[in-house]
Design a protein that fits this description.
By secondary structure, the protein is α/β, with parallel strands linked by helices. It contains 4 helices and 6 strands; from the N terminus they run ββββαβαβαα. Strands 1, 2, 3, 4, 5 and 6 form a 6-stranded mixed sheet that branches.
C-alpha cells in the first residue's frame, strides 16, 4: 500500500473507555493506554492531544457495521469524532467482532480488568484490518 509511511492511529470508541492504537511505520501496530472516558469533552481533548503528540496524519475509527444497536452507535461515534475537530483525514473501519477477538487473543495473558487493555487491543485489530485492505 502506498500510504505505508504515514503515521496512523485508530480508536475504538466505547461509552466508558476509548481504545487507542498506533502505527508509525506502516507495519507494526502498537496498542496504547486506553483513554478513560469521564465525559466527552475530556475524552475528545485527550484524544486530540494524543494525536498531536504522535503527529498522526490519519485516524481510523472503528464502526460497528451490523447488529441491533449499530445505527445508534454509529451516530454516537460520528458525533464524537466531530467533537475532535481534526484537520487530518478520518476514515472508518468495520470493527465487527474486534472486542471479542481481543478478549480471545488475550485469554490467560492477563486478568481482564476494566483498565482499557482490551479496548486498545480491539483498536489494534481495527487498524490491522484497515492496513490489510
Amino acid at each position: 500500500m502506498g500510504s505505508s509511511k504515514i503515521k496512523l492511529a485508530s480508536i475504538d470508541v466505547g461509552l466508558k473507555r476509548i481504545g487507542v492504537s498506533l502505527c508509525l511505520d506502516g507495519n507494526i501496530v502498537l496498542p496504547q493506554d486506553a483513554i478513560i472516558r469521564k465525559n466527552r469533552n475530556q475524552a475528545s481533548s485527550d484524544i486530540r492531544l494524543f494525536l498531536e503528540e504522535w503527529n498522526i496524519e490519519k485516524l481510523v475509527v472503528g464502526l460497528p457495521k451490523d447488529g441491533s444497536s449499530s445505527d445508534e452507535m454509529q451516530r454516537r461515534i460520528e458525533h464524537f469524532v466531530s467533537l475532535l475537530k481534526l484537520n487530518i483525514e478520518v476514515c472508518y473501519q468495520d470493527e465487527q467482532g474486534s472486542s471479542y477477538e481481543a478478549k480471545e487473543m488475550t485469554k490467560g495473558a492477563f486478568r481482564h480488568k476494566r483498565d482499557g487493555k482490551i479496548d486498545s487491543i480491539a483498536a489494534k485489530i481495527i487498524l490491522e484490518r484497515y492496513l490489510e485492505k
